[in-house]
Amino acid sequence: MTTSQEELLPATRRALLHRIAVAQAEGRAPSLVAAVVRDGRTVWHGSRTSVDGHAPDERVQYRIGSITKTFTAVLVLRLRDEGVVDLDDPLEKHLPGTRAGEATLSELLAHTSGLAAESPAPWWERTPGSLRPALTDVLGQQPFPHAAGRRFHYSNPGYTLLGALVEELRGAPWEEVLQREVLEPLGLHRTSVRPQQPHAGGWAVHPWADVMLPEPAEDLGRMAPAGQLWSTTGDLARFAAFLVRGDDRVLSADSLLEMRTPAAPPEAADVAAGYAYCLGLEIRRSGERLLVGHTGSLPGFLACLTLSVEDDVAAVVLANCTSGPLVSAVGADLVRIVAEAEPRIPEPWRPMKHVDPAVLELAGQWYWGTHAFALRVTADGLVSLGPLSGAGRRSRFRANGDGTWTGLEGYYAGERLQAVRRPDGSVSHLDLGSFVFTRQPYDEGAPVPGGVDPGGWRGIG
Fold it and tell me: Which residues contact 330 (CB under 8 A, 6 or more apart)?
C-alpha cells in the first residue's frame, strides 16, 4: 500500500491532526502516532511528540501488546482451514499434558475457556519470561477459576496455550511460524518479536507530576503469543486492510468474517457498553457504528487497531506510555472523522446479468402469520427476507444449488429456506426452519400449522 496524504480533504486532515494532538497533550504521552486506512490503502499518518524535531514516522516501532493475539488467532484459523484441527477440538487432542486440555480451541480463542486472566505472580508483563519456562508455570496450580463456556473471561494464558499449539503442530517456534505464514506474505517487514531500530522507548508518566520513568522491555518467553510483538503504524495499517479483505496466501475473507463474528457470551456490563469478543478480535459500539479490532498494552506502551467494515475505514493509534490517552476512543474518533466528513461513495447499482425465473417468481410480499415480509433477489446472487417495515428478523440467504437457501446472519443463520411447490409446480409457501410463509395472511390454501378457522376473517358485530 502507498501513503497519499492528498487523498483526504484538507479539513479532514486537520481534524485528524487535532484529535491526536489533543490526545497526546491531555494524555501526557511522550509520543503518539496514528494512521488511517480507507479502501484498503493508507491515506493519512500523523504524530505528536514531546521531543522537538523527532516526530516518529510510520516506520518507528512501538510495542503493540495484545494486538499480538489477533496474529496468533490467524495462525490457529490457518490450521483449521487446512484441516489440521477443528475449533471444537479439545486442546488435549493436539497438545496433551497441559492441565488445561479440556478447553476447546474456540473457547481459548474467544476467552470462554474458564482460564485465569493472568499467570501466577510475579506480574508477567514486567518480569522476564525465563521465570515461566514451562506451560505449567504459566497456568499455575489452579488454572480454571470458572467453568468452561459459561462466560467471557479474558485470559492471557489461554493465548499462550494457542501459541504452544501452533508450535506443536508446525514443529517450529511460534515466532518463526508467524514470520513465515503471516508477516512475510503480508509484507509486514517492520513487525517483529524483538525491537528493531528505529523504535520508541517505553515510559511511565507520573500521575501527579510531569515527570517520567523508563519501563523495562522484557522478553515474555512463553507468554509471547499473548502480547510480545512490536510493530508500526505502517505495518498495522496493512494488517487492518487484510482483516477486512483477506489474502488467500494467509487467510480467506470468509475465515476473517468468522474471526469478526461475536463468539463469547458477554457480561451484563459488556452488553451495556456495547462490547463483544470474537475469535481474536473485539467488537465495540461507538455511536451507531460497529468497530472491530483489538487494543493492546504493556508497561510503557498503548496500542489500538480499529476498523469499520461498513465504512471501509480503519485507524491505528500507538503511544509509548503505560497509561494516559484512551487509545480506543482516539481510534474510534479517527474512523468517525473520516467516515462522516468523507462518507464512502457506494458502487453504482447494476442489474443482474441472469436470473432464474423460478427464483424471480418468489420475489415480493410474503406473510408469516400476519407479519408482512418481503423477499428480494439481489445482484450478488443472494436472496434477502425481512419485514416490510420496522424491526424484526431478517437475513440474507445463499443458494445451495438444489433449490434451497441457507441463512447467513441473525436469527436465520444456518437455517434452510425452501420454496414448497404444489403438484402442478406452482408455489404453495415458503418453509423457513418450520415457519410457513404464505402469499396471503393465514392462506387457507397453504398448510398453515394449526390450520385456519373455516369461518375466515370477520369483524365484530
Answer: 19, 20, 23, 32, 34, 304, 315, 317
| Distance from C-alpha of 366 to C-alpha of 400, rounded to nearest angstrom | 21
| Arithmetic mean of pLDDT, 107-113 | 98
Would you state the pLDDT for residue 3?
A: 43
> Which amino acid, 358?
A
How much is the pLDDT for 1? 37
pLDDT, the chain, mean: 95
- Residue 10, pLDDT score: 96
> What pLDDT does 272 receive?
85
Closest among 18, 12, 11 to 313, alpha carbons compared: 12
DSSP 421-443: E-TTS-EEEEEETTEEEBSSTT-
User: pTM score, two decimals?
Assistant: 0.91
| Beta-bridge partner residues of 214 | 203
First to last CA, the chain: 73
* Rounded (to 5) percent helix, strand, coil in the chain: 30, 25, 45
Residue 350: how many CB atoms within 10 A of its CB?
A: 7
The count of other CB atoms within 10 Å of the CB of residue 111 is 23
The CA angle 328-17-335, to the nearest 5 degrees, is 40
All cell numbers assigned to 38: 480507507
